[in-house]
Every structure is written in C-alpha cells, then in structure tokens.
C-alpha cells in the first residue's frame, strides 16, 4: 500500500476512488525510481519556471503540466447536480402525475439525463480505433541546439510533458488487444513552443508509398463489407488480395508477420516516426532525421498461439498491462534516438529516403540518443483523455519540418480532417487533452463548442484598433525550410514516382535475413496461418509468387503449409536493374538485438497455491519478484484463503479458472499442492507455459508432476528455463529472475507442437 501510495502521489484523488486503505486498491506491483508526479511537478517548476498563466515561459523552459487540473473533477462529498449545477433530490423516480400516472414533460432532470445518454457515443477512429493512453514526460539527455531549435531538445535536463496513445490499427474500439497487427505509437509533446505530435507506429515502414492508396489499404484490411468479418484480423481474402497486388507492401508484410505484430507489452515495443523529417537549427540549416523510440525494458513479444489464447481470456491484455505498470510504479520508459543525415548522404543511398517502405539501416546511419520518455500517470477518464486526444502529423513546431514523402503529404491533410467529424467541429484543439500549454492567440472565431472567450472587437489582421495584435512572429515563428526542393526532375505536374521507389524486395530480404532462425520460422508460420484463411486459391498463389522475390526458402515453407506443390513463377519485378543494397544483414532488426536492461519490472508470475503448499517458499518467491518490480500472483483452485502446509493461510487472488497460465510470464509450482495436481487447468497451465517457451519453476514433488505433463522429448536437463529443484533450495528464485528478464529461448519449439 505504501508503494501504491508513492506511485499514486501524482493523483491525490486516486486513493479515494479505490477506497483508502480498504484493501480494494489493485495489488501492489513494483517499486520504481521514476519520480512521482508531485516530484515531477516540483522539478518542473524549478527547471522550467512555474508559469501557469499560459503566457510564454522564459526562453528554453516549459510551463508545468498542471494545466489539466483546472478541468479535473472530484465528486467525493459532493451532492449530485444537473448540468446546470442544480442539486438533484431524487435520482430514482421519474416525475409523474400520481404514482400510477403519466410521466410529466416538465421533468427536466429525467430529460437531461436521457438526452445526454442518447448522445454519449462519438464515431470511433476510422483506423486505430482501439487504443490505450498514458501521461508522461520527456527528458532531454543531450541538447542538440546545433541541429535543431525544437523546444524539447534545447537543454540537457529539460522536461516536456506528453501524452501517448498506443493502438491496434484494424480492430474496432472494443476489439482484442492481441490481434496480429501494427501498433500505433502516437506521442503528443506539449512543448513551450506549441504541440508537436510524433504519430508513429511500432514498425519503421509502411504498406504503401503514397497516401492515395491509404483508403484502399484500409478498406482491404478492415472486416469485409458484406458480412463485417473478420474483426481485428488481416487473415482474410481482401487484405491478401490487395497486398499481393501491391509489391511495395512486401517489406512491411515481413514486419507484420513477425512477432513484432504481437507485442508482450506496449512497454516492450520499439516506436518509429517512419517518415524522414527535418530538423532545422536557429540559422535555418536543415538536417534530415528519422525518429526511434527504444524501450528500456527491451523488445519482447508473444508467440502466436499465446496471443490467440490471450485474446479470449483477456482481450484487454496490453491495456491492462500498461495500466498496471503505471499504477504500480513500474513506469515504462523509452530512449528517443535519431538518425541524422544530409541530403548528399540520402542521394547516395540505394533507396529513396522519401519512400516510407524503406528503412535506413543503422549500419548506414547509427542511432544517437537524445532523451528519455517516461510514462508515469494513468488518465483519470478514458473518454476525456484517451478517446478525445487528437493527434495530427501536421502538428510540428519550429525546429522541425516535413519532407516531400508522398505518404506524409496525405497524412498532413487527413488527421485534421478526420477530427472534424470525430470530435464535431473545428474547436477540438480546445478539448483539454488537446490544448497546448501555451496560450493560443489568433483571429479564428466561433464554431461549435467554442471555449475561449476572446476579448475585444478585433478579429482581423492587419488592424490598428488592437494595436496590430496578435502580431506575426516573423522569424521567431514557424518558418518552412526554403530549400526543400527534393523534386530534382523538375516541377511539372506528374502522377509518378522516382525510379528508386520501384525496388520492393531488397529490404524485405534484409529484414528476413537479419532474424534469428526461430523468428524466421515464426514469420513463415504467420504467412501460412494468414494465407490459409484465404478462400481464393489465386490470392494465396499470388502471395507465394511475390514471396519468391524475397526468399525461395520462405516461399517454399509457406507453399508447403498451404498444400501448394509447385511453386508459382516469381512475380515480375517493377524495375529491371534493382540497385545493389548497401547492407544485406543487419545487427539491429531482430527482436533479440535489443533485449533490454534485464529488469523484470512489469512481469507477471503465477505462483500456484493448492492445499498443503510450501507457504514459506511461495511467499519468499513473491517477495523476491516484488523487489524486482514484478508481480507474483497466488493462483489457487479458487480465490480466497488456502491452507498452506505449515498451518498458515495464503490468500489466492486468482484462480486456475479465471487466470489461465498463458496470461503469465512464468509459472511457479512450489512443493506440496496436492489437490491442484488433479485440476486439469493446471495441466494446461504447464503445457501452455512450456509451449510458449516461458520459465517454469517446479519444486519438490512438483517436479514429477511437471515432467509427466510435458510433451514427449522435452529436454528437462539442458533447458535453462525449466527450473526443477529440491525443496529448500535457494537457487530457483535467482534462476527464475534471470530467465524472466531475458528474451525467451525458443529451442523448445517445434512445428507442429509436440504431443
Ligand atoms: Fe495514420 C490514425 C500512424 C499512415 C490517416 N495513424 C493514426 C494513429 C496512428 C497512425 C498512430 C492513431 C492516432 C491516435 O492514437 O489517435 N498512420 C500512422 C503511420 C502511418 C500512417 C505511422 C504511416 C507512416 N494514416 C496514414 C495515412 C493516412 C492516415 C497515409 C491517410 C492519408 N491515421 C489516419 C487517420 C487517423 C489515423 C484516418 C484515424 C484517426 C485519426 O487519424 O486521428 O486520419
């Protein structure tokens, strides 16, 4: 509870919501060194000056992040009121003419309540409908004033508040979290020079090169229009029909079929700005830049069988994980790194940096870390914050600029446009979660739901009646880079692309060849799964024909899985002389390349507690996990007290029925536990956790049970994540902690799974 309190010091009303000290607070998870919001607020006022008036803070500093406080509502100890603030005497009974008489039209309390309810829903996002948000801050760790005048990067130690929304793309608002899909990674920086939205994904490339194709892509992947199936899945004909006809999507398909499409946690995904942007310094000199978010916890994913099962048992798996990490103080963190390069370098690359289906291999342009993001506060209200937040790729600030990436161009239009419908008019920038921390000054007026009250009679410029205000900022304002002439072939109107855009396979190959053998197997299995759901043979064959341009080995594996005996001829190439790629294998593209800091923070372990369990060991294990920031949950045959072997009681807070084994990162079965071994759920626990290559600890008599349940041929001696030990041994706990913080070892896997 103390840890909870520390983690929640940022929100004084939270303990009340959970009922202070009444035991209803979510179970304490981790400790953290990240500052609480209170500490952050005081750090901000020291570092940034505590200017809450909304006027510009001193140069190089931020206002505080407390601007949302003016709209936060705490109803504890308050009487209920109408929206007009009139106290409501009775919230149960409609006003009627006599107890059995008709309802009266004058009942404004009833009518207001029903009318508001009737209008409660807004359209969901056309893509990325399902998302989870969190507040946090960015801390600059290296000032790069020589490269950009962008506010967050002007001073080492400078803090910029931000809001992040992670999302799946294809599924509807209520769909499952663990769909095989790209994840949105959208960050809104509330800088002291206005809002900057870095609206990226957890994959560094995209399916298409031109925004003209975006509606087609989305129509293809969304549920098919005649019967609205399947939900939150790309495994259907229309998606594969489209992408098999669009060879430019092949590189992205490699990423999407990899385990990156089923992240273990939002906190263990990389994020990417995808497009090439520009940094611009105070002298107006531009440097090309790509943005990367690197999770401090490392990159970790699920396996497909696990993702499928989780989607049934806990469709909110990633959302819950994010919420609990933050609530328990295991704050997710990412380093922000940039690839910086010049136009001349870009010209020499074998690919075009304006093509969003291409990465710049880190071997060509290394990453430079310039700051760290920490997410340390859950939203107070999902709708007000996570649903109403409106990201827009066009929201950039001085020190940044666009490039002529044709995908980016369409995005600059689309985001603002879509919010007009979704949020009902042009004033959505005034919704608190969207409002910048600097005061807005312009002559735009009116529109639905206007909040600001602009004073004076002048709403035009130039004017003399208001002393010329608000005035143009000139070079102090946002200035587009003048020399943005990337169209070297001239400026005559065309609908065409540069030659390098026509090469579609080299980087798909680069990605595939840079994976570990297990990851390559997962990619092949993902293609097999997805294409096996397509009912039209020609679609499956065309996709295999396209894969032949990436790797005959991959095409063969997929074809075998689809019963295609003879490989179709490779799809014709769009370019006769594809340029030779600079890098053919990269150290950085496998999920194993960035295992993280080995910390177990945010991980979840099932500690099985049946009658007769070795309670001392169970408690010791839980304590050790807690110290590392992980949660050890006691899982019994039912929730509530369980009689341990030593006569004490252990309180199980989960059951084998309500929390299946695949929801956990590891399974611990202490000695004792007699009754549980006759619970079929536990057999499935062991099999699933084993099959998904996660650690299992079995102590004393549990060893025999586990070895009996494991599939034939399971290696019980060399498998480091299978920890079988004597009762009373101390080593098992340390061994588990080491395995938990490391990437999974896939050597247990076989395809199909062993019996
Ligand atoms: Fe997009 C939402 C990311 C291409 C049009 N997109 C959306 C979100 C993310 C991305 C993270 C969710 C934002 C949130 O959480 O509210 N989109 C990307 C990336 C792309 C990309 C990384 C390629 C590099 N998007 C893209 C194109 C277009 C759009 C080419 C249209 C021309 N995207 C939209 C949208 C959405 C959106 C329709 C739906 C809801 C919203 O904007 O606010 O406008």
From TrEMBL:
Annotated InterPro entries: Catalase, Catalase_AS, Catalase_clade2, Catalase_clade2_helical, Catalase_core, Catalase_immune_responsive, Catalase_large_C, Catalase_sf
Coiled-coil annotated spans: none
EC number: 1.11.1.6
The UniProt record lists the keyword Disulfide bond: no
Gene3D superfamilies in alphabetical order: 1.20.1370.20, 3.40.50.880, Catalase core domain
Family: Belongs to the catalase family. HPII subfamily.
Protein name in the entry: Catalase
UniProt organism field: Melaminivora suipulveris
